[in-house]
Each structure stands twice: as C-alpha cells, then as structure tokens.
Design a protein that fits this description.
TIM Barrel; single chain; about 45% helix; 19 strands; Methyltransferase; 19 helices; EC 2.1.1.-; MttB-like_sf; methyltransferase activity; about 525 residues
Amino acid sequence: MAEANTRRRARGGGGAARRAERTAVRIETAKYIERNIPNFEVLNEEALEIIETNAETILAEVGVNFVDNPAALQRWKDVGADVDGERVRIPRGLARQLIKTAPSEFTQHARNPEKSVVIGGRNLVLAPVYGPPFVRDAQGGRRYANMEDFNKFVKLAYMSKWLHHSGGTVCEPTDIPVNKRHLDMLMAHMTLSDKPFMGSVTDPSRAQDSVEMCEILFGKEFVQENTVMTSLTNINSPMTFDDVMMGALEVYAKNNQACIISPFIVGGAMAPVSIAGTLTQVLAEVLAGVAYSQIIRPGAPAIFGAFVSSIDMNSGAPTFGTPEASMVTYGAGQLARRLNLPFRSAGSFCGSKLPDAQAAYETANSLNMGLMAGVNFMLHSCGWLEGGLVADFEKFVMDADQLGVLHGLAKGVAYDENAQAMDAIREVGPGGHYLGCAHTQANFKEAFWKSEVLDYKPFETWEDEGGRDTRQLATSRVEHLLANYQQPQLDPAVNEALNAYVAEKKASMPDAFT
C-alpha cells in the first residue's frame, strides 16, 4: 500500500512538473525557415522572356528618374547610361551586367550569433510590421504611436518564437522629434532584443548614424566586412528614385549593408492594372535600383523587393489578399530567382480596421502567398492592420503565432523510417487506436504544431473560462509576454557608449517635428 501511494505521488509530481514545463516562459527563437517544398510558379518561359524583354525596353527607351541627385546622374553617365536632365536611360543589358556582383545570399549578423540569419537561397526570414503611424490595442483603441508602444513591440518580437528578426520602424513614435526618433528606435532594437534589425532610411544622415551605432555595437572593422543591417529602399513608382531613399542606399551600400530595393505598387495607381504590365514595371525598377547599389559598391548585398496590392476602383483604397496580388508576387519570385537575387515580398497584409474575420482571411492569403512564392525576407509578417496605417498589438501576437504554421508547411513531408510509422501500424492493427502506442509516445511532443493563442478546449471548458474570442485571448497573450519579458544581456561598456553617442547626437541639433 505504501509502495502504491509512493507511485501515485511520483506520478502526481511528474504531472505537476510537466504542467510547469508547459507554462514556463521560454525565450526561444526558431531558426529561419529552410524550405523543403517547391516554389509555386505561374509564368512559363515565354511569359518570363516577354516580361524581361519589355523591362529592358522600359529602361532603354522610357528610362527612370533620379531626382535631386546630381552625383547619381554622373555615376550613371560614367557607366554608359544616357542621362537627359534627371531622366536616366539604361542601355539594354547594362543593368543586368551591373547586378551580377550582388550576392545571391548573405548572412545578416545579430549581436547574438545564434540568431544571425541567412537571406537568400531557399530560406525565409520573418520580420514584423514596418512604418505605421498609429497603433491599436483592445484597451486604448486606435491612437498615434509613441516610444513606449515601440519598445513593447520590440519586446514582443524578441519574445516571439517564430520571428527571426526585430524589424525596423515597427511603429512611428510620434512623441519623439522626427530628426531624433531613429536614434531611440535603434537603441531599442540594440538593447531590448538580440535579434537582427533594420537601419533608418528617412535621411542619409540617419543612415550614417545607423552605421556608426552598429560600429559601436559590433566593432567598426566587423561592420565593414559583414552585413549587420538591412534597410528598406522604396522606389517612388512609377520609375522615380528620390534623393532621400537613394542617399540612404548610397550610405548603406558603401558600408556593405543590405538594401531592399522595393517598388511600392498599388495596381491601377502606381502600375498598370494587368499582372504582366505590373511585373514588367517592377522588374525594370528593381534592375535600375540594384544596379545603382552595385555602382556604389560592387558586391554590396541587395534584395529584389516587391510590395504589391491592388486597388478598390470605387474608393481608391488599396486591397490585400487578392488573387491579383498573389499572381504578381509569384511572378516576381520567379524573376528574382532568374536574376539570382534574394526576394522580399508578402506579409500579414489586410485592409481591415480590426483584427477580425476580414483581417484573418486576407492575412492568411498573404502569408501563404509569401511562403509559396519563394520569399526570402518577409517584412510585415505580423502586426499589420488597416492597410499598414496601424500596428495592432493583438494582431501582432495572433500573426506571430500563425507564423509557426509557415515553419510547419515549409518542412515538407518526411518519409524516413520513423515517418513511415510501420511499427505503429503493426502494433495497433485493425480496430485499435494510436494514442498509447510506442510511436505516438515517442513523437507526440513534436508531431503537431500547437498554437499559443487559439482555443481548442471543449465548449463547456471554454464557456467556464469566460467564453473569450480570439482577440481577448490575444490580449492575454500580449500581457503574458510583456510581463515575462527578460532583457538580453549587453556589455555595459557597449551600452554606455551607445547612450553617449545618442545623447551627443541629440544635443547637436534642435528638435524638429517635420
């Protein structure tokens, strides 16, 4: 009897230990995705050749504008382009020749080497939402973002297992002067997280600040020899390269840091309404942008970007999760691979005002599109709401949770001896069940992806626990993650040097809010 009681206590202790293990906070980051599934391709060889030929025609005959940037115009003249005012016409084949020095993949180093990522090849790196001026949560509703919001998002990204990257401007902290907020944002990424991050592109001087802060964090020589930042260089579609974005690109390329050369396309407004026409323009713009980065520094990392949405012809508002945007993204992936360049596109795109059913449908379409299109760097992978105007806390954790599905799908189907499960089938036989068989016991922990947000309990249990919907569950998840956040360690001397740099920079200029 005493022995039996001992056994029961041991089982109870084991159960308690397992429950504690399940509920304990673990700061774990999954490795970037390595696809074991094929890319989905929609264009045949004839279509690809037509689009490539037409893109070369655009560059040679229509040209692209490099505005307010005399140095860029001179650089293009020096490599053989025809420059007329601010219009640059690039002879057939020149841009393709120039981009051959851009790497097909590269490593972006994190301050924690275990969290460095390889961008390109068959890899997929996931980064959070970028750029919204507003935030939303269940308690405060929609409001202008501030620095406290920004810090919370960085912490959530750090605590999110399936996110590989801290991102950049996860929201615009409007309580900080425009000319100084990049310093605070970079400090947040560098000190509150140890994942890789993005640099500022809102002014060339701010790009230079980003490089100099990285030199403090990583060491000057390391920065010049390695890539420690990505940056988002948007093209003013159609076919216009402004001096601010190109100025930032010049700084990053010169310092061996990665630039995402990304047309900003709303079909029917910034590009033709047809899929082939949009792809032609996207390719022409990317060719010109990546070529220019290689003029600045041959071998500088560059990413083929494509931000694509369609348009509601009644209201003029952008729409997301549509079949047309998917087709452009699939086609752009094919074009990027033919150029041997890493590909950036897709995200948790939606036009909904709330994290509701519309947001879920559109986001699921957009995320799966990115996985199947062969995207290598997915910005906006979580938190996007209202066409990118809002970063939503609940949707951030809902999306970040669903990114685990992409990891699962990308694994493909295993067919080794364990996966064949013949021993299990023999053990159970006809009419049995697999719950207790040896194969299930050996594999159940890793057999299925498990949500950290969604509810799978029986109705009675769900009702007893308050009948919470997904948004309410996500609110609890946000609170849980922030309450259990643990700041990663940083060398105190490096932290002190970063703070001194930021203080000196801020003191050197008056506040500006425009």
